[in-house]
C-alpha cells in the first residue's frame, strides 16, 4: 500500500523519526514544520493522509486542520500531547478523523495510518437508504432529497456502517472497531464527535436527529424508531 | 507491610484545593456567628413555631418586646403613684373646704336664738326654714341662695336633727328641700360618733347618698357636728366634680402612658435597626462572599463601631480575595506548567519511543549486548511512559483541571471490559477473577474512561498483592448508587494502612519489589477519579485475610451518596462464616462458569485434620475463595503458615498452565476436597 503522507510537525527530531518509520512501511512522507506554510505544502504535495501536530509555530494545528477540511476530505490524524477531553474534542471538531496521543509506539502510528488509508478496493454497486438519505456505496456519494452531501471518507464510512444494518444498535466500541479499526476500544469521544459532525451534514435538524439516532446508554443506530 | 513512603511535596495541591474550598466558608461562618440574623427560609410552619423561630432569630424583635414590657411596667408604677398622690390631695382639699363650710353653718346656728330652745318648741315648718338658712346659701356671707346640687362642688346641708334617743321623735329631714332622693339614711356609726362628741366638733365619713340628680347614690363627704344643747347638723358634699377631674386625669395619664410605651418601642425599633441592619448586611455580605462573590463589600459610613465592622469585613473580603487570587494564579501557573511539561516531555519521548521501536525491531542484527540494551530500552520506556502518564494525571487533579465526561453506561459492562488485562495477569499467576454481577444491567452516569481506570487499578492491585489467590469482583446497585467491590485474599493490610493505601508512592513493604511494575500512583489516581464522580473509594484490609476495595458511585451526576449497596468489610457481608449465605451466593445462576469450576482448589492442600465440619461444608461450595476466607475467619491456620503454605505450594504452578482450561482444573480440585472429608 503506497501512500503520500504529509507530516506537519515542528519538532525536527520527531519529524525525522516519523519519516524513517513511514518510509520503512512504504509510505512517502513530506514534511512541513510551520503552520503558516502547511496549506501551501498541502496543496503542492496532495497527500493521501495528513499527520498533524496540534501545537505548531505560526498558525496552530486546529486552524490548519480547519483549512485542510475546508478544501479536502483527506484523512487527518492529529498528534497531540494533550489527552484532555477539551483538547481532543476541539481537534476532532475542527475536522480531524482520528488522533494519537504522544508518546505513541510506531506500530500504533502505522496501524492508525493504514486504517485511515484502507479503502475497499472495488466495492460492489450498492445503494442504501435511510429516511430521505440515499447512499451510493460504490460511487461514494450521499444524497438527501436529491441534493448531494459532501461527506469526508470517514463520515461516509460511519454512515455506511450504520446504514448497512438499519435499526440495529451499534455500541460506540463496535463502531470504533468497524470504522476506525481499533481493536481495543479506547476513546468513545471519537465516535461522539464524528456522529455530531455527520448529523450536522445529513440531518434536517441536528438537535433532533432522524437518520442517526442515539440509543441512550447503548450507542447509535440508523433510521427512525 | 508497614512502612509508609509518602512525598510531602505533592501535598501542595491538596492544600491549595482545601484552602480554596475552606477559606471563604471559614470567613463567612464567624460573621454568621456574630450576627445570627434571620435567613429567609420559608417553610410551612404553624404560627407558634414561626413566632418562636422569629424570636430566636431576630435580635430586633427581642429588643422591641423587652422595651415594650419594661417601659409598660415603669410607666404603670409611675402613673399609679402619681394618681395616688393626686387623689389624696383632692380629697384632703375637699375635706378642708368642707370643714370651713360646716364651721360657718355652726357659727350661724349658734347665733340663731331659736336653737337655744328645746325641740318641743320648734315646729316643723320653722325647722325647715332654719334648715334652709343653714344650707350653703346661709353659710355664704352674702346670703345668695344657689341651687345646691346643680353644681357638683357645693355642699348640701343635710339635716338638722334631734337625736332619736333623746326625744323618741323621728329626725327631721331637710332632704326634700335640698334635693335628696327620698329620705337620706345617716350611717349609724356617724350619728353615734356625733352624738357622743363634744359640741362643734366635726365628724367626717366618706359615703354615698342618693341625690335627686341621679337616683344612684352619689359618693361624697358626709360631715356631722353637734350644736346647742339638742341639735346636730349634717352636711353632705358630693364628689362629682372631683371624680370627674380624677377620671379625666386618669384617662389622660393612661393615654400618655400608652403613648410613652409605644414611643419607646418605636425608638427601640429605630435604634436596633441602626445596629441590626448593618449586621444583617454584614451577614448577607458574608453569605455572598462564601457563595463565591468575592467582590462583595459593605458601605462604610462614619467612624463608629458599625463602620468598624464594615471596614473590617471589607478588609477580610479584600484579603480573602487577594489570597484566593494568589492561589488561583498559582493554580493557573501550575496548570499551565502541567500542560507545558506535558507537551515538552511528550514530544521528545515520542521520538525516543519510536527510535527504540526501530532499534528493537532490528535487534536480531545487533551483537548480544546491543540487542539486550534495545530490549531494556523498550521495556523501561513502557515503564517511563506509564509513570509519566500517571504523574501528569495526578498533577491535572492537583491543578483542578480534571473534568468529568459522564454519560449513562452499564457498570457491569465496564467491569468486564476493564478486567481484560488483569485477567491475563491473574491467569499467568494461576489465579482467577470471579465476577458476581447482577442479572440486569446497572446503568449509571459515569465517565467510562475514569471508571475503567479505577477498576483496572484496583484489579491490578488485587493481582499484585493477591498472593496468587483468586479475586472476587462484586457489582450491586440500589436506586441512588452503584458499587463495585474488588476482594483479594492476599497479604492484606495492617491496621491503619487502609488509609495509607491511597497515598502517592506508598508501598506496603518497601523491600518488596513491584512484580507487575505499577507506578505507585494507581490508587491515588483511582481515589481522585472516584471523588470527581462524587463517589467513594474505600479500602478494608486485614493481615492474611486480604483486602476489599469498594467503589461507590452515584447513579446520577451530582447525586448524593448516603450509603453503599455493598458492604466494605467481609465481616459485614457475612460471607466469611455463614455457609447458608455462601450457598445462596454461589448458587446464583449469573455466576460465571469458570468460577464454578474452581471449587476448593486453593485449599485442597491445607491440612485436612485442621478443618472442622462446618468449614468443610463450605469447602465443597463452588468458590474456593469463599472457603479460604472462611478459613481465615475461623482462625484455623496460623497466619504466617497460611501465607507461606500458599506461596510455596508445589502444585501451584500447574494451575498457571491450566489457566485457560479451567474446567479441567476444577473437578480435580474438588475431588481433593472430597478426600479430606
Structure overview:
The complex is a heterodimer of chains A (225) and B (677). Chain A has 225 residues and is of the alpha/beta class. Chain A contains 8 helices and 12 strands. Chain A folds into 2 domains: 3-117, 3-Layer(aba) Sandwich (Rossmann fold); 127-222, Arc Repressor Mutant, subunit A (Orthogonal Bundle). Helices cover 40% and strands 23% of the residues of chain A. Chain A has a 5-stranded parallel sheet with strand order 2-1-3-4-5, with helices on both faces. In chain A, strands 6-7-8-9 form a 4-stranded antiparallel sheet, with helices on one face. In chain A, strands 10-12-11 form a 3-stranded antiparallel sheet. Chain A is globular, with a radius of gyration of 17 Å. The N and C termini of chain A lie far apart (41 Å). In chain A, 41% of the residues are buried. The mean pLDDT of chain A is 85. With 677 residues, chain B is α+β, with helices and mostly antiparallel strands. Chain B has 3 domains: 36-296, no CATH class; 404-573, Histidine kinase-like ATPase, C-terminal domain (Heat Shock Protein 90), CATH 3.30.565; 579-677, no CATH class. Chain B is built from 24 helices and 11 strands. Chain B has helices spanning 11-35, 47-57, 59-111, 124-134, 136-139, 164-167, 175-178, 188-196, 240-290, 305-361, 368-398, 411-418, 420-428, 448-465, 497-500, 522-532, 570-573, 579-586, 593-597, 613-619, 624-633, 639-648, 652-657, 662-676, and strands at 156-161, 203-211, 214-227, 231-238, 407-410, 433-436, 443-446, 471-477, 481-488, 536-542, 546-554. In chain B, the strands form 3 sheets. In chain B, strands 6-8-9-11-10 form a 5-stranded mixed sheet. In chain B, strands 1-4-3-2 form a 4-stranded antiparallel sheet. Chain B has a two-stranded antiparallel ribbon with strand order 5-7. In chain B, strand 10 and strand 11 form a beta hairpin. Chain B is rod-shaped and about 175 Å long.
Amino acid at each position: 500500500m503506497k501512500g503520500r503522507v504529509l507530516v506537519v510537525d515542528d519538532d525536527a527530531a520527531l519529524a525525522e523519526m516519523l519519516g524513517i518509520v513511514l518510509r520503512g512501511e512504504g509510505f512517502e512522507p513530506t514534511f512541513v514544520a510551520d503552520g503558516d506554510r502547511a496549506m501551501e505544502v498541502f496543496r503542492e504535495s496532495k497527500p493521501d493522509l495528513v499527520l498533524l501536530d496540534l501545537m505548531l509555530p505560526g498558525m496552530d494545528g486546529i486552524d490548519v486542520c480547519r483549512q485542510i477540511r475546508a478544501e479536502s476530505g483527506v484523512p487527518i490524524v492529529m498528534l497531540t500531547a494533550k489527552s484532555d477531553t477539551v483538547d481532543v474534542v476541539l481537534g476532532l471538531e475542527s475536522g480531524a478523523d482520528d488522533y494519537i496521543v504522544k508518546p505513541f509506539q510506531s506500530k500504533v502510528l502505522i496501524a492508525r495510518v493504514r486504517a485511515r488509508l484502507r479503502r475497499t478496493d472495488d466495492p460492489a454497486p450498492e445503494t442504501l437508504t435511510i429516511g430521505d438519505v440515499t447512499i451510493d456505496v460504490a460511487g461514494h456519494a450521499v444524497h438527501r432529497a436529491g441534493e448531494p452531501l459532501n461527506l469526508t471518507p470517514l463520515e461516509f464510512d460511519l454512515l455506511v456502517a450504520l446504514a448497512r444494518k438499519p435499526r440495529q444498535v451499534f455500541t460506540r466500541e463496535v463502531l470504533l472497531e468497524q470504522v476506525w479499526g481499533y481493536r481495543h476500544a479506547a476513546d468513545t469521544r471519537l465516535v461522539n464527535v464524528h456522529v455530531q459532525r455527520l448529523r450536522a451534514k445529513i440531518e434536517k435538524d441536528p438537535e433532533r436527529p432522524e437518520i442517526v439516532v442515539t440509543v441512550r446508554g447503548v450507542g447509535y443506530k440508523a433510521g427512525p424508531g | 507491610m508497614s512502612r509508609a513512603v509518602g512525598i510531602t511535596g505533592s501535598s501542595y495541591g491538596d492544600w491549595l484545593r482545601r484552602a480554596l474550598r475552606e477559606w471563604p466558608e471559614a470567613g463567612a461562618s464567624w460573621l454568621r456567628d456574630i450576627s445570627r440574623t434571620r435567613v429567609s427560609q420559608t417553610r410551612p410552619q404553624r404560627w407558634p413555631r414561626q413566632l418562636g423561630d422569629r424570636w430566636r432569630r431576630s435580635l430586633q424583635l427581642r429588643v422591641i418586646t423587652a422595651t415594650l414590657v419594661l417601659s409598660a411596667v415603669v410607666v404603670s408604677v409611675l402613673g399609679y403613684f402619681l394618681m395616688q398622690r393626686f387623689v389624696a390631695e383632692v380629697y384632703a382639699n375637699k375635706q378642708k373646704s368642707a370643714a370651713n363650710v360646716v364651721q360657718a353653718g355652726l357659727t350661724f346656728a349658734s347665733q340663731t336664738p331659736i336653737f337655744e330652745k328645746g325641740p318641743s318648741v320648734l315646729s316643723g315648718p320653722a325647722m325647715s326654714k332654719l334648715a334652709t338658712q343653714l344650707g350653703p346659701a346661709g353659710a355664704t356671707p352674702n346670703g345668695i341662695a344657689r341651687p345646691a346640687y346643680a353644681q357638683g362642688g357645693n355642699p348640701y346641708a343635710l339635716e338638722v336633727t334631734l337625736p332619736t334617743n333623746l326625744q323618741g321623735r323621728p329626725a327631721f329631714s331637710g332632704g326634700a328641700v335640698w334635693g335628696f332622693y327620698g329620705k337620706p339614711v345617716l350611717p349609724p356609726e356617724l350619728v353615734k360618733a356625733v352624738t357622743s362628741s363634744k359640741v362643734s366638733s366635726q365628724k367626717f365619713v366618706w359615703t354615698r347618698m342618693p341625690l335627686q340628680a341621679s337616683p344612684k347614690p352619689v359618693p361624697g363627704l358626709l360631715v356631722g357636728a353637734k350644736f346647742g344643747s339638742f341639735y346636730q347638723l349634717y352636711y353632705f358634699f358630693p364628689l362629682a366634680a372631683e371624680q370627674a377631674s380624677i377620671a379625666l386625669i386618669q384617662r389622660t395619664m393612661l393615654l400618655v402612658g400608652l403613648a410613652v410605651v409605644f414611643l419607646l418601642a418605636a425608638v427601640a425599633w429605630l435604634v436596633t435597626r441602626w445596629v441590626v441592619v448593618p449586621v444583617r448586611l454584614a451577614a448577607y455580605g458574608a453569605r455572598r462572599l462564601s457563595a463565591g462573590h468575592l467582590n462583595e463589600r459593605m458601605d462604610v459610613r462614619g467612624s463608629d463601631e458599625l463602620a468598624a465592622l464594615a471596614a473590617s469585613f471589607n478588609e477580610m473580603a479584600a484579603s480573602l480575595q487577594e489570597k484566593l487570587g494568589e492561589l488561583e494564579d498559582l493554580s493557573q501557573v501550575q496548570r499551565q506548567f502541567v500542560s507545558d511539561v506535558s507537551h515538552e516531555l511528550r514530544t521528545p519521548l515520542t521520538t525516543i519511543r519510536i527510535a527504540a521501536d526501530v532499534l528493537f525491531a532490528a535487534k536480531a542484527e545487533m551483537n548480544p549486548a546491543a540487542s539486550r540494551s534495545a530490549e531494556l530500552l523498550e521495556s523501561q520506556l513502557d515503564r517511563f511512559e506509564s509513570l509519566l502518564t500517571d504523574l501528569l494525571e495526578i498533577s491535572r487533579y492537583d491543578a483542578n483541571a480534571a473534568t468529568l465526561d459522564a454519560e449513562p453506561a452499564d457498570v457491569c459492562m465496564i467491569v468486564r471490559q476493564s478486567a481484560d488485562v488483569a485477567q491475563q495477569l491473574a491467569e499467568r499467576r494461576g489465579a482467577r477473577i470471579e465476577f458476581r454481577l447482577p442479572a440486569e444491567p446497572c446503568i449509571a452516569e459515569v465517565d467510562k474512561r475514569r471508571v475503567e481506570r479505577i477498576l483496572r487499578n484496583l484489579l491490578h492491585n488485587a493481582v499484585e498483592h493477591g498472593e496468587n489467590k483468586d479475586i472476587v469482583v462484586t457489582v450491586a446497585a440500589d436506586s441512588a448508587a452503584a458499587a463495585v467491590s474488588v476482594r483479594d485474599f492476599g497479604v492484606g493490610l495492617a491496621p491503619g494502612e487502609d488509609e495509607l493505601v491511597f497515598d502517592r508512592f506508598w508501598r506496603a513493604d518497601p523491600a518488596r519489589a513491584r512484580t507487575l511494575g505499577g507506578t505507585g500512583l494507581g490508587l491515588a489516581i483511582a481515589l481522585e477519579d472516584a471523588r470527581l464522580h462524587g463517589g467513594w473509594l474505600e479500602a478494608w484490609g486485614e493481615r492474611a485475610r486480604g483486602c476489599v476495595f469498594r467503589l461507590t458511585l452515584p447513579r446520577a451526576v451530582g447525586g448524593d451518596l448516603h450509603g453503599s449497596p455493598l458492604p466494605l468489610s467481609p465481616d459485614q457481608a457475612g460471607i466469611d462464616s455463614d455457609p447458608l449465605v455462601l450457598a445462596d451466593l454461589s448458587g446464583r445462576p449469573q455466576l460465571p462458569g469458570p468460577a464454578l469450576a474452581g471449587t476448593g482448589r486453593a485449599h485442597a492442600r491445607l491440612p485436612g485434620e485442621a478443618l472442622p465440619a462446618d468449614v468443610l461444608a463450605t469447602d465443597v461450595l463452588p468458590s474456593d475463595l469463599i472457603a479460604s476466607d472462611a478459613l481465615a475467619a475461623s482462625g484455623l491456620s496460623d497466619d504466617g503458615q497460611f501465607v507461606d503454605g500458599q506461596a510455596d505450594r508445589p502444585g501451584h504452578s500447574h494451575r498457571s498452565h491450566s489457566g485457560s482450561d479451567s474446567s479441567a482444573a476444577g473437578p480435580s480440585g474438588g475431588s481433593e476436597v472430597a478426600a479430606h472429608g
